[in-house]
Design a protein that fits this description.
This is Pr6Pr family membrane protein. It comes from Sphingomonas telluris. It is a single chain. The chain has eight helices and no strands. It is an all-alpha fold and about 210 residues long. The longest helix has about 30 residues. The protein is globular.
Amino acid sequence: MQRAYWGRAIAGIAAAAGWAGLALQLAILVRGLGFAAGLWRYLGYFTILTNLGAALVATSWVLGRGDLLSSSRSRLTAATCILIVGLVYSIALRGLWSPSGWQKVSDVLLHDTTPLLWFVLWIVAPPAGLEWRDIKWAILPAPIYAAYSLARGAFNGWYPYWFLDPAMQSPIELFVSIVLLLCAFALVAAFLIGLSRFRPLRPHPSAASPATSR
C-alpha cells in the first residue's frame, strides 16, 4: 500500500516535470522559428517524443485509469526510452552545446530530471507481471524512430542527432549506430525487467509459526 502511494506520488512529480519541460521547449522553439517550423522541429527530437510518451504514461498512472497507457508493458517502454534519453544525452550529446537561461531549464528537465525520476519510480514501484519476452516491446520505439528520423531528414535535410545523420556517417557507420542503439534499448529493458522481477527472499508467514496438530 505504501509502495503504491509513493509510486503514484513520484509518478505525479515525473509527469509534472515532463509536461513543464515539454511546454517550455515548445515555447522556445516556436519563439525562435515560428509556430509551423518550431512545431516541425519540436516533433523531430526523440527526447521530445519520449518525454511526451512518458508524461502520458505517468499521468495515466497517477489517475489510476487502468488503461493501455498504465499497463506494465507501457511503463516498461516509457522507462526504457526515458533512461535511454538520459544515457545517450550524457554520453554522446551533452558536450556538443552549452545551453543557458530557459533553454538550460528545459534541458535539465527533459534530459536529467525525468530520467532520474523514472528510475526512482521503477525502484519504488516496479510494475508486476513483466517477462523477459517483453523486451521486444521496449525496443520497438528504436527502429520506428530511426526510420522516422531518416525519412524526415530525407525530406528537408535536417537530422536531430549526428549518429542518425547520413551526411556525417558512412552507410556502414549509420547501420552500426542503429544496431548499437537497439542493443542499448535491449540492455536497459533487460535491466529494468530484472529489477521488477527481483524480490528479496522473505519467509512465508506460515513458516514462522509452528505446525499445529490435526
